[in-house]
Amino acid sequence: MGRHADEKDLGHVVNASGVITKRDPDTVRWADLSFYSYDRLPKGPIPEGYLSIPPNLVVEVCSPDDRWRELLVKVNEYLEVGVTAVIVLDPEPRTAHIFRADRAPQQLGPDHDLTVPDILGDFRVKLARFFE
User: Fold this and answer.
1) How far is CA 72 from the centre of its chain?
2) How far apart are CA 29 and CA 58, in angstroms?
3) How many Å apart are CA 68 and CA 112, to the nearest integer?
4) CB-based burial label for 110 (10 Å; 0-12, 13-18, 19+)
5) Which end is more exposed in the chain, N or C (fewer Cβ atoms within 10 Å of the end residue's Cβ)?
6) Helix, strand or coil, per DSSP, at residue 28
């Protein structure tokens, strides 16, 4: 994803970044991977600390001890602050779930292509590659 974003000059891909999902008191969720388009976060060095703007895309990878109920709370928090799409990769059944605020969740199996054209343009990869 990072290589594609760089080659297409789309934006910043950030590993393990904090996303502010609530204020007063602040709640910060740690995303496994975040993508910020240059529209949201201009070219150049990424500022230190937590960004006040939400990423366009968040990718979460399920751990063996993760519970779907807790993951869905996290997904909803991301969407409520303006994240366009959240992808949850689940290694055990080798699936991805794509969540958006404006449509029903989408589930992909390992033979499907993962795409998010409104965010990453022509990025396309077989889902199984994430689990190799």
Assistant:
1) 13
2) 11
3) 22
4) middle
5) C
6) strand
pTM of the model: 0.94
pLDDT of residue 132: 87
Preceding peptide of 25 cis, ω within 30°: yes
Which amino acid does the sequence have at 76? Answer: N
Q: Give the tens place of pLDDT for each residue, 16-39.
A: 889 999 988 988 999 999 999 999
What's the rounded Cα separation, in Å, for the pair 24 and 77? Answer: 15
Q: How buried is residue 44: exposed, middle or buried, by Cβ count under 10 Å (0-12/13-18/19+)?
A: exposed
Q: Which residues pair with 30 in a beta bridge?
A: 18
Q: How far is the C-alpha of 57 from the C-alpha of 88, rounded, in Å?
A: 11
- Write out pLDDT tens, residues 51-87: 889 999 999 999 989 899 999 999 999 999 999 999 9
Distances in Å between the Cα of 34 and the Cα atoms of 25, 47, 51, 79, 120 are 23, 15, 12, 13, 12
**φ, ψ of residue 31 in degrees (nearest 5):** -90, 140
